[in-house]
Amino acid sequence: MGPVTIAKAPERVVCVGQFRDIDAAVGLGVVPLAAPDLSSFIPGGLSPWVKTALAGAAAPQLFDTTDSLPFEQIAAQRPDLILGADLSSMEDDYPNLSRIAPTISPATGYNKDPWQVTTTRIGAALGRPDKATELVAGAEARIASAKAANPGFAGRTFTFGPVQPDGTVATINNEADSSAAFFAQLGMQLAPQVRSLPPAGIPNRSTISAEQLNLLDADVLILTYTAPEARQRIEASELFTRIPAVQRGSYVALDLPAALALAFPSALSIGYGLDQVMPKLQSALAK
Length: 287
Fold this sequence. Notes:
Helix 4 (90-100) links the parallel strand 4 and strand 5. The protein starts with 12 loop residues before the first strand and ends with a helix. The protein has helices at residues 20-27, 48-54, 71-76, 90-100, 115-125, 129-148, 178-185, 192-195, 228-235, 238-241, 244-247, 256-263, 269-285, and strands at 13-15, 34-36, 61-63, 81-83, 103-104, 157-163, 169-172, 189-190, 205-208, 220-225, 251-254. The chain is an alpha/beta fold. A four-stranded parallel β-sheet has the order 8-6-10-11, sandwiched between helices. It has two domains: 13-127, Nitrogenase molybdenum iron protein domain (Rossmann fold), CATH 3.40.50; 146-285, Rossmann fold, CATH 3.40.50. It is globular. The mean pLDDT is 93.
């Protein structure tokens, strides 16, 4: 959104993006003063990987972003840096945020920056570039180790997305998506039939109706659910039970935190996501 000048290492950091801003900050050893409340996705409002990384340190103050950013609450923290690399509304909110403090926006657009880029940029802003390089290298090593241990993943196809309460699926449709890139690092590839689907509101996602569930077939079909009734509804659907991947046992249901760790990967979330998903992928792709 424009050049940002940071004269010295920030001491009062506020995160306004949903996931990867706080992941990068905490991973780099900086606990923000405040961050968005994720209670609508994750019980307690903080991801499991952030809680682990905090290692008992005081958690940030959490603020509600359901309707909009609470600019007065953010300003009251007297931040000297605002992290918004993962803020979907940055184009609209940047003028207000940048009047409060220097603000880091996405490099190329919301949900378009690779997690390595986000980590590196935030590391530079926090005055911790070497730590950022180390953090990226550690996460990439975890992925490389998982790939080496599972050569059978090479070339296998996947589909991935959350199911809404109405039974529609926001499936990944672009290999440039961060989650698709994550699976590609394991040797897998996005199923061809979803790559040509029209985009929905969120970048790199397409909406599949309950009548189009056959489009989700792949070597492994990965879903998560925004509400328990969504899972009950789709798994009871005759069209869903007819999908070849479901019939042979290559359907993986992830809880929402594990799915978010992969859908919005960061140097901090990747280890958690690998621990949660690898045994399930191994089982599904063996069938």
